[in-house]
Amino acid sequence: MQKVTTRIVPNATLSNQRFLDTIDHYCCSLMEQDYSQGTIDIRKTVFRKFLTFIQQSGLKKISEIHQDNITKFIPYVSQSYQASSMGTVFSSMRSFLGFLYEEKLIAEDITPAVSVDFNLDSRNL
Question: In CATH, which of 2.60.40.10, 1.10.150.130, 3.50.50.60, 2.40.50.100 is domain 17-114?
């Protein structure tokens, strides 16, 4: 397979206020469900990376997120995490995408775009 290239700046700042508000709303939802602060922090970190990636891809609204964004994000984020940590990244992404769909912020459930498994071969996407 061909390696995915992006024009993403590694340490870019998330500046889209709608995206920041969505992160806050998601974290509040996790708190209401009695998730531990550690779990919330991990999920918030992954979600923030994803939304920064989305922002740099040119999207301005959560509703514009689609499966192709996930397909491009996974190889990008896998460069920042060890393979042993990617299960946590995937779990966080599925949780967040499910939240977006349940809250009707995205029209389609794209949770299945995030694998339940990660292997080293997926880094070469």
Answer: 1.10.150.130
The pTM for the full model equals 0.81
Cα(56)–Cα(48) distance, integer angstroms:
12
Question: HEC states along 2-34?
Answer: CCCCCCCCCCCCCCCHHHHHHHHHHHHHHHHCC
Number of Cα atoms under 13 Å in the Cβ half of residue 67: 8
> What is the spatial distance between Cα 84 and Cα 88, in angstroms, rounded to a whole number?
8
Question: How is residue 7 written in tokens?
Answer: 């024009």
User: How far lies 95's CA from each of 2, 92, 113, 121, in Å?
Assistant: 28, 5, 12, 24
Residues in the chain: 125
CB 69 within 8 A of CB 54: yes
Question: Is the pLDDT at 80 greater than 90, yes or no?
Answer: no
Q: How many CB atoms lie within 10 A of CB 42?
A: 17
